[in-house]
Design goal:
The protein contains 11 helices and 9 strands. The protein has 345 residues and is α/β, with parallel strands linked by helices. Among the domains are: 109 residues, Spore Coat Polysaccharide Biosynthesis Protein SpsA, Chain A (Alpha-Beta Complex); 101 residues, no CATH class. Helix 9 packs across helix 11. The longest helix has 27 residues. The two termini are 33 Å apart.
């Protein structure tokens, strides 16, 4: 039976790490063929202590909680990769909750030598009580609001993809491409999938659902997507890759609508009000037509609460504005960087 190493990068995730690790310990893959490495990015809370408490006394082949002074996610992941003993590496983030068959099923996909990476669908669940957190989760499950991300699309079908959520890999292949790029504080998964294609395809399993707890406030969501936008520009600059038109168009809609409204507000308040109403109506239509309960198979007997609907609309605007503000800042004021050694297409 294949020995699998699960790497869990975490920093200041005291509230989330226990649920994540409980799900890891519930795997139906034989536990004597499971290794779990939690890489704590020098947390300022009790993340490491909670992880040790949960894993202590488990029947795993091996487990450890390592501390990384570098703190950044790719560095945490590479520390785990260096320490791993498994033939297969599975990344599981602290805010994610994998199903009990996750490891078994992803390992089965990698029995096909034509596949190099496998991942499932991210299903957002509220990160806190209340309509705002529920609306944020709803917006993140809307593929239109996220540039057409396949792994966030509840209606997407299994097949080859351009990237994978989290990702499961063969250890020797992952090491041969140098692991996760430390030049990218965000967008490492897309970059890694690109480099891993020298070994085979990237497989998306639509029915392999992983729950994810997003940031529970619009302020933290804005900061997250501002970071994503900035690092996406760094990725384009480093690799020579270019954005997909669908991503730019879809992410631009809420940002352009809000920006136009603000500009008009200073000169023509009446027109600005009408534009704001129109932009809100457009986002409401997007939420209704493409949101997580838009499928004909979805249960529509329970209507979406108005507060959750409004929060979802606000979250879609926040995603677009945050992403574009980070991208524009990076274009105008590039951060220092160096080109990675591996630029394999």
């Amino acid at each position: 039976m294949t020995l699998v190493t699960i790497i869990v990068p975490a920093r200041n995730e005291e509230a989330a790490i226990e649920s994540c690790l409980r799900a890891v310990l519930a795997q139906d893959h034989p536990h004597d063929r499971l290794e779990v490495l939690v890489i704590d990015g020098w947390s300022e809370d009790g993340t490491a202590d909670v992880a040790k408490r949960v894993l202590d006394g488990s029947d795993l082949a091996h487990w450890d909680v390592l501390r990384n002074v570098d703190r950044r996610t790719p560095s945490n992941l590479n520390m785990g990769l260096a320490a791993a003993n498994g033939e297969i590496i599975a990344r599981v983030d602290a805010r994610s909750i994998i199903g009990p068959d996750y490891i078994r099923r992803t390992v089965a996909v990698l029995q096909d030598p034509s596949m190099a990476v496998v991942g499932g669908r991210q299903r957002s669940v509220p990160g806190a009580p209340g309509p705002i957190a529920a609306g944020i989760a709803r917006a993140l499950d809307n593929p239109v609001a996220n540039g057409g991300s396949r792994y966030r699309n509840p209606h997407a079908r299994s097949g080859e993809s351009d990237t994978a959520y989290l990702g499961v890999f063969r250890t020797d292949q992952l090491r041969s491409v140098g692991g996760w790029s430390t030049e990218l504080a965000s967008n490492q998964d897309f970059d890694l999938a690109r480099r891993m294609r020298r070994f085979g395809g990237v497989w998306f399993s639509a029915d392999l659902v992983v729950d994810y707890r997003p940031r529970p406030t619009l302020r933290r969501l804005f900061a997250q997507y501002r970071r994503f936008g900035g690092w996406k520009v760094v990725y384009w600059r480093l690799t020579g890759d270019r954005p997909r038109p669908r991503q730019l168009v879809l992410l631009a809609v809420p940002a352009v609508g809000v920006a136009a409204g603000l500009l008009l507000l200073a000169r023509r308040p009446g027109l600005a009000l009408r534009s704001g109403v129109a932009a809100t109506a457009a986002l409401a239509a997007v939420d209704h037509l493409t949101g997580p309960n838009s499928s004909p198979l979805a249960d529509r007997r329970t209507p979406v609460p108005p507060g959750e609907r409004l929060a979802s609309i606000a979250a879609m605007a926040t995603i677009g504005i945050g992403w574009w503000s980070g991208a524009i800042q990076e274009l105008l004021q590039p951060r220092a960087h160096r080109v990675p050694n591996d630029r394999t297409p």
